[in-house]
Design brief:
single chain, 97 residues, mainly beta, five-stranded mixed beta sheet
Length: 97
């Protein structure tokens, strides 16, 4: 799988009653690559994202995730998914929030 060099920066996380709204700013694209979507993963330890929370389209810059048990700390990070030269590609993880 080709690496998609399209990093993004998770900017904020708003939490209330078992739901979380994430907002991000995408970085400029990589020549020859097409961004299709973002995948948001999470876990209970920083750097360990064992659960997939949701996906967002390439045009979206916010996402609300509902149904999270209260009283637990979570760490969220995102990946950019797309194609480069016709092959599937993905970025590394964004910063965590």
């Amino acid at each position: 799988m080709t690496n998609l060099i399209l990093l993004l920066l998770l900017l904020s996380a708003q939490v209330s009653a078992g739901q979380l709204t994430l907002a991000w700013t995408p970085a400029p694209g990589t020549p020859g690559c097409t961004l299709d979507r973002y995948r948001i993963d999470y876990g209970t330890a920083s750097g360990v994202y064992s659960q997939q929370a949701a996906t967002a389209t390439a045009a979206e810059t916010t996402l609300t995730i509902a149904g999270l048990p209260e009283g637990q700390a979570y760490h969220f990070a995102a990946k950019s998914l797309g194609t480069c030269g016709g092959s599937p590609a993905e970025s590394g993880y964004s910063n965590a929030v």
